[in-house]
């Protein structure tokens, strides 16, 4: 006789297997794999632009404060 935890684990495993067999899951997996490098590059570029703008802003605040700002 199986325990409640084993039944739940078995139900989840079967659900996951059925989900992974669907065309939508397969399409999503392929598109995610193809698109991931573009997302990573976009994130890196935006982070770099924000760091640059932040640096300029901090520099301007330092100049305006007469060199007293950190």
What does this structure look like?
The protein is mostly helical. The chain has two helices and no strands. The longest helix is centred in the middle third of the chain and has 42 residues, at 23-64. It is elongated, with a radius of gyration of 25 Å.
Summarize the structure.
The protein is mostly helical and 70 residues long. Helices cover 84% and strands 0% of the residues. It is built from two helices and no strands.
Bulk shape? elongated
Radius of gyration: 25 Å
Based on secondary structure, the structural category is mainly alpha
The overall pLDDT, averaged over residues, is 94
Classify the beta-strand content into a percent band.
under 5%
Unreliable parts: none
Number of helices: 2
List the helices and strands and how they pair.
Elements: H1 4-20, H2 23-64
What descriptive keywords fit this protein?
single chain, 70 residues, mainly alpha, 2 helices, 84% helix, elongated
């Amino acid at each position: 006789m199986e325990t409640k935890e084993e039944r739940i684990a078995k139900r989840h495993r079967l659900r996951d297997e059925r989900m992974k067999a669907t065309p939508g899951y397969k399409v999503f997996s392929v598109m995610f794999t193809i698109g991931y490098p573009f997302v990573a590059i976009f994130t890196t570029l935006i982070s770099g632009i924000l760091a640059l703008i932040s640096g300029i802003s901090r520099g301007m605040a330092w100049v305006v404060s007469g060199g007293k700002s950190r």
